Sequence to fold (313 residues):
Amino acid sequence: MTGGRWLLRAASLGAALLVWQGLTSLDVNLWLRFEQFPTVGEVAGAFAERAGTGPFWQDLASSLRRIVTGFALAAVLGVAVGTAIARSRIAADVLGPLLEVLRPVPAIALVPVAILLFPSNEQGIVFITCTAAFFPVLVSTRHAVGALTPVWEEAVLTMGGGRARILFSVVLPGALPGIFGGLSVGIGVAWICVISAEMISGEYGVGYRTWQDYTVIDYPGVLVGMVTIGALGWLTSTAVERAGRRLTRWLPAREASGSAASAAATRTRTGRAPGRSPRAPLPATATATARGGANGPHHGAGTFPEQTREVTS
Fold:
C-alpha cells in the first residue's frame, strides 16, 4: 500500500474524531442527543487509566483466547463440512437439511443451550463463538468447491492421481479464495457473538467489562470497551486477510490482470499489439516464418498460404 493511501486513511479517522469532539463539546442536541455523550478527550483519558491496570489486560486476554479458539474450530469444521457437502451427495443429503434448519438461528440465541450443555461459562462462550463463525465458512466453502471446473480434476485422474491428490492439489487450492472470503466474514460475526455472550454469561472479557461499565453509568468506560472491541476486530480481520493473500499468491495480480485486459482490448480494436506502429517491420522470426520458415516453403509454421497472407498483410 502506498504512502498516499495510508495518509488518506489516517485523515479519514482524524476527521471522524474531529466531528465527534465537536458534537460532544458543543452539546449538540438535534434529534441525536450529544450533551451526555463523552468527548474524545474523556474517552482517551479513561483508556489511558484502564490500560495501566491489570484487569484491562486480563479482559483482553480472555476475549482473545475465546475468539481464537472458537474461530479456529469453526474454520476447520466449516472447511471440512463444506467440502464434504459439495463433493458428496450422501453428505449433502444427510447433513444439508439439518444445517439449513440451524443456520438461520442467531448464535446468541444459543446462550441458554450453552448454559444447559456445558459445565462452565468459558466452554459455552467458545461454543457460541464457534457456531457464529461456522456457517459463513461452511457456505463460502460449499459454493467455492462447487464452482470449480471439472477439467482440473479430470487432468489429475488422467495422470493417475487419486482422491487424496485431487483434494489437496485441486479442490482445496482452487477453493482458497472463496474459503478466505468466508473466513473474513466469519471473524467479524465471531466478534459480535463473543462480546454478546460475555455480556450475558461471562465473568471476564471486554464484553463483560463494557456491560459492567454501562450498569454503573460509566459512559467513558463504555466507549473504551467499544474502541477496544473495534481495534481487536480490525487487527484479527487484517490478520485473516493477510494470511489469505499470502496463501493465494499464485493467483494473478490485479495490476497484471488489468494490464493484460487492456492489451487485449487494444489488440481487438486496432488489430495489432499495443505500442507497435502500423508500418513497423515484423521481427526477423516472423518474417522468416511468413516466407516459409528456415527449412523451405513446405516445413514448419507459416507454410499455408492463408497464414502467409495474414502475417504479411
